[in-house]
Amino acid sequence: LEAALRALVAGGIRNVRVETLARELGVARSSFYWHFRDRQTLLEEMLEHWSQELTGIVIRDPEINALPPTKRLAAISEIVSERHLAKYDAAIRQWAKQDRMADRAAQEVFRTRLAFLRKLFSELGFEGDELEMRAHLFLIYASSERDMMPELSRAKRKRMAPLRVELLTRPAKK
After folding, report:
1. Are 14 and 102 in contact (CB under 8 A)?
2. Do residues 93 and 83 lie in contact, with contact meaning Cβ atoms separated by under 8 Å?
3. 3-class DSSP state for residue 7?
4. Are 73 and 138 in contact (CB under 8 A)?
5. What does the radius of gyration of the chain's CA atoms come to, in whole angstroms?
6. What is d(CA 49, CA 47) in angstroms, rounded to the nearest whole number?
7. Are 100 and 118 in contact (CB under 8 A)?
8. How do the pLDDT tens digits run along the chain, 174 residues long?
9. Taking phi first (over 0 means left), then psi (-120 to 50 degrees means alpha), and beta for anything else, what does residue 36 get?
């Protein structure tokens, strides 16, 4: 699944081919079909893997969920950045533009992420447009920082993360 997702990033959904993946992994095509009934099953499982391993891992983490909201946001920033959990997001969004199944899966993942972030910002007392803006900004930044700013060093990303959390959790001036 990781090899298929890497192929998606490298060349789009047309690059996710059974023959190519089998060759890259050093297995026979028949071995591939032992794990996946067909290419469609592979595509479905890629989306499920992306959803569970790169979103569910954060949202369902009991240690993260036990933290106060601001520390939870900081922990999420660190985990997403350090583990590069958004590495397939741009490729999935591109695939979703061409494929209804991928679009449904991507929408569900982003709805889940937003709902989680809305709850966090709501716990901090934000409502309405203030809450929405903060949840959206956090999600957009977390899911696209590396793609949009690849030149940022790991150290700089690490220094900027708490500043971002502090900015997004600071009460708006009235």
Report:
1. no
2. no
3. helix
4. yes
5. 18
6. 5
7. no
8. 999 999 999 999 999 999 999 899 988 888 888 889 999 999 999 999 999 988 888 899 999 999 999 999 999 999 998 888 999 999 999 999 999 999 999 999 999 999 999 999 999 999 999 999 999 999 999 988 888 888 989 899 989 999 999 999 998 876
9. beta
Q: Any long-range contacts for 41-45 (C-beta under 8 Å, 24+ apart)?
A: 42/1, 42/4, 42/16, 42/18, 43/13, 43/16, 43/101, 43/102, 44/101, 45/1
Distance, in Å, from the CA atom of 5 to the CA atom of 38, rounded to the nearest integer, reads 16
User: Rounded to an integer, what distance in angstroms lies between the CA atom of residue 41 and that of residue 62?
Assistant: 31
Residue 56 to residues 49, 85, 110, Cα–Cα distance (Å): 10, 11, 11
Which residue type sits at 85? Answer: L
